[in-house]
Amino acid sequence: MRPTVHDIAAKAGVSLATVDRVLNGRPGVRAVTRARVEEAIERLGYVRDVAAANLAKGRVYPLVFIIPEGENPFMRGLEAEVRLAATRSSFERTRIAVVHVPPFDAPALAKAIDAAIAEGVAGIAAVAVDAPEVAAAIGRARAAGIAFVTLVSDLAASARDHFCGVDNLAAGRTAGSLMARFLGARPGAVAVLAGSMLVRDHRERLEGFRALMAEAGGGRQVLDVLEGQDEPERARALVGACLVAHPELAGIYSLGAGNAGLVAALEAAGRGDVCVIAHEITEPTRLGLERGVIDAVLNQDAGHEVRSAIRVLRAKADGLPVIAAQERIRIDIFIKENLPQPLDETGTARAAEA
Amino acid sequence: MRPTVHDIAAKAGVSLATVDRVLNGRPGVRAVTRARVEEAIERLGYVRDVAAANLAKGRVYPLVFIIPEGENPFMRGLEAEVRLAATRSSFERTRIAVVHVPPFDAPALAKAIDAAIAEGVAGIAAVAVDAPEVAAAIGRARAAGIAFVTLVSDLAASARDHFCGVDNLAAGRTAGSLMARFLGARPGAVAVLAGSMLVRDHRERLEGFRALMAEAGGGRQVLDVLEGQDEPERARALVGACLVAHPELAGIYSLGAGNAGLVAALEAAGRGDVCVIAHEITEPTRLGLERGVIDAVLNQDAGHEVRSAIRVLRAKADGLPVIAAQERIRIDIFIKENLPQPLDETGTARAAEA
DNA sequence: ATATTTCTGATGTACGTAAATCAGAAATTT
DNA sequence: AAATTTCTGATTTACGTACATCAGAAATAT
């Protein structure tokens, strides 16, 4: 069996209370005694039983996730993952609340952050909007001793503890690389459909994509960005017009949401030959892949991001270090052939990595 | 706070003992009373605190992982993941042992399984070799009430409870699809490098690859399989000879291990133009991607597989159902641009700013 | 109505840790 | 040497559940 605090006490020849003081960094232990206890811990290979410890302290960590409202299917999936994690994590003495804010609305986000601070939560996770007032609110949270992570989209000039999301520059480069390889020698320009240049993740993806297309050579033209506000209808209109204006168009990189409109426009124009690369496995992109309208989808696993955010928030709330490598979110590539089956109706399905 | 057994007892107007009987399916409760208790459980939304429950029962699950020995870097990575999970899972009252067997050696594997049975473990995970004596040993394990999962490579005609690995047919198809797209209209045959046609996962990958290449049209020739036994030196020799015999070779699909040899042969021949698709992110494939010798790597996340195997074994040992969709392992695609950075020896990231 | 079986309540211990209290020992200061 | 401070030990309660025991109540059979 694993050694317990009792074993340490016996081995070090001290009482349980002293072991407890050493283990929990409480004062009242002479340096010599502390060293003896620590040696016993080392020699016995003692590891704290977190379950028992949590049980004993009966502490709960109230966390808040601030997520954009609206129809964006990725955000809705993200929220579903938060709620799923919330039920699971009640075992881990974490209480999770979800708060909605309008998308791309910095003042509303700042207000939501301040509300969470007032509630006295232990940690906040938020999909950041890149604006000074948001950075200021994050500063206030941190000043109040509240852990803060940005989710999906970062905000560099802020005091956030950690960013839970993918390297969007690398994501853009990946999209560019796939586009270049899939198109090969085929001539024609490439269009880019984005949500808004006001969010950092979209800007970074575009930057990475453009950089790689330039490096790839061949002088392929990348057209001006179409900003669809992540809304399917706008995306449909923009892409439809673009297909008319550029009949020779060879590829489209959709780096935001609104992909239902993108697929609709392509199908309406009968342009299944256009090479399309999009982001995030959602209902529209899944259908697009299956029907061959979309060629590849880059994905960030929302479940991973949420669970990582929870781990980081709890660690920060406890003042523990975070192992960055463990929290890195991968950029998944999906094509028709390796597309995982959709979740079942219970919504519980997901390859849990915990 | 979450409701506890005490709350249920109060709500249902019964004693703690009765609640316990209902919760744990013990006899001695009238149907009427049981219904009352169950209603209270329902109404209060009671969920058993697994941590406290495990603590109380103090049960441990001894599990054994049987893994091929040798230099195969994927297997070594798999073993590392098992050991990592072992340290973490001691919290979950699981004790994990690792046993080595020679690769592709059915009698040795059967013997290892029988040894584990004799030890009275609660569950066994093994990288299967597709042979009748192995299936028989699995049958004996199951007959002894021991949970059994196959890991990475399956063995269909056996009594194993579950297979923890990817859909290798789909993996082969994915490789085929990428190969076809990357090559485009470029002429030339495609070679296949495998470990051994005696293991099921390699056979299935080949089948999927061939099927998709046929469907893709263009009449591209797929050469006879080169069997490298997952050994780098053999692979190097086979590929080197193949490059001489087929100067027009356009692509190579490496569906097993020994990729260090593959990369060496390609570099020696100066054939960076050959489109190469390999399996598993390991040191050689990572280097191959970074240097541009390998174009894409399909990966199965060994960590996911191991954790899934542990979850399944524990569930089976407890007689609980497994949600198959939750345990599905994805086929990851990596190219140079979305390759995750390797971890350094401390487990922390090399470049983790963001 | 009595005997018997079946159900239920009350109570206690255990799991491994956290945290508090209080008494006593050791070290330090006066 | 006495007074004080600082350290340490012993002990207890608590967390939420599992599990065992025993007595008593209720239901059923005789």
Automatic annotation (TrEMBL), chains A, B:
The keyword DNA-binding applies. Residues 3-57 form the HTH lacI-type domain. It comes from the Bacteria. InterPro entries: HTH_LacI (IPR000843), Lambda_DNA-bd_dom_sf (IPR010982), Peripla_BP_I (IPR028082), SBP_2_dom (IPR025997). One of its GO terms (molecular function) is transcription cis-regulatory region binding. The keyword Transferase does not apply. CDD domains: HTH_LacI, PBP1_sugar_binding. It holds the Pfam family LacI. Keywords: DNA-binding, Transcription, Transcription regulation. This is LacI family transcriptional regulator. It comes from Mycoplana azooxidifex.
